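Subgroup meeting minutes
Present: P.N., E.W., G.H.
Scribe: E.W.

1. P.N. recapped why we're keeping a running log of single-chain structure predictions: easier to compare across weeks, and new members can see raw inputs and outputs side by side.
2. G.H. added today's entry (282 aa).
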Amino acid sequence: MQIIDGKKVSEEIIEQIKIETGEFKASCGKVPGLAVVLVGDDPASAVYVRNKGKACERAGFHSYEHRLPADTSEVDLLALVRKLNADSEVNGILVQLPLPEGMDSQKVLEAIDPAKDVDGFHPVNVGGLASGISDLAPCTPAGIMELLDRYEIPIEGKEAVVLGRSNIVGKPAALLLLKRNATVTICHSRTKNLKEVTARADILVAAIGKADFVTADMVKEGATVIDVGINRVDGKLKGDVDFEAVAPKTSYITPVPGGVGPMTIALLMKNTLTAFKKQNSL
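Output recorded in log:
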């Protein structure tokens, strides 16, 4: 059993991005710019935004933070998004979710220029992902693929099972695995004989938001297990996988914390660099 170190891999990715950013700064005088919009004072969201700002600094990016009060109107938020769309210094736009009650998150996400949608949630980019042509995949699923590649875990021809069908992780993770020629099954709350399905998986991705849901009898001997869950239990972070019980059966497994989590921000930086290069024909 080998633990997949997402923190180490994320640091390597950001260091590589920093080097490439420095080269662009020297050659054309430009660096990527990421705008993050936070509406309200949700504590978890504030932490995410702060971490994204730190990652921008490490990568050599310009970081533009827009913190709006919780009573900001949807009209004003959409006006800010349009302003950022038109700003050539801003290459990536991220509106931190969840938005305050009463705001239409989908409407706001659809207002972002797809070329600057570094979260990969705009319908144009979702359609591109389904067609296999998008460069801006959602960051967490893209981070999972990076981990598999960095640890040289075979994907082609393998049986992959994704637990969860969210638009943020489950569905895009399945599409990315399918693009790499895995045979993919998506499981959800209505799946019958769940343990039989998950026990077939060479690669098991758990993204359902239930602490310790995946038990040892659900996992094939020698499987790779990717735990996307972040659940707070008695003040501690726990994944969707019962790590202590499952880990001995696996070839590779991600811990929580320190597995997939750090990769999300690293891939946000990578998406922003990709958007910057496309917008500047570099």
